[in-house]
Amino acid sequence: MYDVNLIRRDFPILSREVNGRPLVYLDNGASAQKPQVVIDAVTRGYAEDYANVHRGLHYLSNLSTEKYEAVRGTIARFLNAPHEDEVVFTSGSTEGINLVSYGWAAPRLQTGDEIILSVMEHHANIVPWHFLRERQGVVLKWVEIDANGDLDPQAVLDAITPKTKLIAITHMSNVLGSVVDVAAICKGAKDKGVPVLVDGSQSAVHMPIDLSTLGADFFAITGHKLYGPSGSGAIWISRERQAEMRPFLGGGDMIREVTREAVTWADPPMKFEAGTPGIVQQIGLGAALDYLMALGMENVAAHERRIRDYARAKLDGLNWLNVQGNSATKGAIFSFTLDGAAHAHDISTVLDKRGIAVRAGTHCAMPLMEHLGVGATCRASFALYNTEAEVDALVSALELCHDLFS
């Protein structure tokens, strides 16, 4: 049984007050809070076990290496990845996507070649491709969403031409919560010989992921949204695509041999992991994923659907609130504005005075803001530890905002 009140006890920060009121943390789309098991893993990693990995033969180095490398298998299990050596450690999705941009796309794409994106991509899945547009003349092709915030997989596939070399697509919008049928996109793209990169930064937090059936070539995740430490993450890269890639960063650990005249690379995934990594951060991520798998991602998804439906019903009752996106299958993410002149930052400030943490701004999704015709929104993004009572607190605070700004 999924007992949210018991789960909340695992997160120390949820018992604190902000501005004299109980914290209502609804900024999970930006970064999630950490359970005690993750805090303990990080503390133990520095206090008891720390040493550099892969480099030494002494006890602590071997212990750190064992715990660090075990996380690769944990990530593979969490994503149901076909092979553990397809998991490349990164500092998060941004680094992972840049790795693909520099290591796979840059050597292969030429002037006029195309990359297909949706209009609701996060900047982390836009800016690396703009680098290629600026430096190599690559063309970015944008696919629009419908009035509900849904992305039609067929519209993505219809955008493919003989010049298309990559589709880079989000699995779940960080602004709208819209879930994209990336399996359909991957299947259709494979039939046309086009690789697909999936930004799983949001989706991996809220639903089970099965890379053995999804059909993607690249799948990026970020640890701090997955209840793990900041600076942790990974990108899954199929063996086929790994073989086509050059290294992104050069340094220790990613080499086989260095001489004055030449250098040879280590086998993947080490080929793409240069320098001293975020050892303790990744160990903390492993603890977070173990925690999630113990809860069961199906159970997490079911709880968040209940919160989503409750929040949608409550927010729909506020006829002066403009919620962006109304996908039937959206996650528990709500971006909104108020009628009148109230700016998103003003709304966020009022909510904060009542202990409610939301995000305000463009959410690293400026093309989507332009598409929606808004300068900024507030975003309430829910997680596995949020409750219906916290939805009620949000609604009450929004009613206060309406009274103040109308």
Automatic annotation (TrEMBL):
Pfam families: Aminotran_5
Reaction catalysis annotation: (sulfur carrier)-H + L-cysteine = (sulfur carrier)-SH + L-alanine
Keyword Kinase attributed: no
Family note: Belongs to the class-V pyridoxal-phosphate-dependent aminotransferase family. Csd subfamily.
Stretches assigned to the Aminotransferase class V domain: 24-394
EC number(s) on file: 2.8.1.7
A Gene Ontology molecular function term of the record: cysteine desulfurase activity
One BP term from GO: cysteine metabolic process
InterPro entries: Aminotrans_V_dom, Cys_dSase_SufS, Cysteine_dSase, PyrdxlP-dep_Trfase, PyrdxlP-dep_Trfase_major, PyrdxlP-dep_Trfase_small
Function text: Catalyzes the removal of elemental sulfur and selenium atoms from L-cysteine, L-cystine, L-selenocysteine, and L-selenocystine to produce L-alanine. Catalyzes the removal of elemental sulfur atoms from cysteine to produce alanine. Seems to participate in the biosynthesis of the nitrogenase metalloclusters by providing the inorganic sulfur required for the Fe-S core formation.
Record-given protein name: Cysteine desulfurase
Transmembrane segment boundaries: none
Cofactor: pyridoxal 5'-phosphate
Keywords (A to Z) from UniProt: Pyridoxal phosphate, Transferase
